[in-house]
Specification:
Helix content is 18%, strand content 24%. The protein is of the alpha+beta class. β3 and β4 (66-72) form a beta hairpin. 18% of the residues are buried.
């Protein structure tokens, strides 16, 4: 999965279930019309999940065409996918790793990045 997201500055989840009969053209139209984003931005990666939450599709534009990849989990495994159908969620590469590992994208006990300045420092 890292090869598809490498260099991307925006990782977008299409929350809720997506009809997996959709292919490149339909998914790019969904990005444009429903998510109100430009599917031709090569810095963006769009990720969709099926109703059973056991498969994802990754869509990314690459200079002169789209790349569409599918990952299907083995029996009994599910992604912890956000359920709100009408939204898109931008996530970090770390959150994507959690999602692919079967965890929720919000890990309440994880250490979150802190932006420090000289004024906030106690040194």
């Amino acid at each position: 999965m890292n090869s598809f997201t490498s260099g991307a500055t925006h990782i977008i989840l299409a929350c809720g279930a997506t009809d997996f009969r959709k292919q490149t053209e339909s998914l790019s139209a969904l990005v444009s019309m429903q998510l109100k984003l430009d599917p031709f931005e090569s810095e963006y990666v769009f990720i969709f999940c099926n109703k059973r939450r056991n498969a994802i599709k990754v869509l990314r534009y690459d200079r002169n065409g789209f790349v569409l990849a599918t990952k299907k989990l083995l029996e009994g495994m599910k992604f912890q996918w956000p359920k709100n159908n009408s939204e898109a969620a931008e996530i970090t590469p770390q959150q994507l790793e959690w999602l692919l590992d079967g965890l929720e994208i919000e890990q309440k006990k994880a250490h979150h990045p802190v932006k420090m300045t000289g004024e906030k420092s106690c040194f």
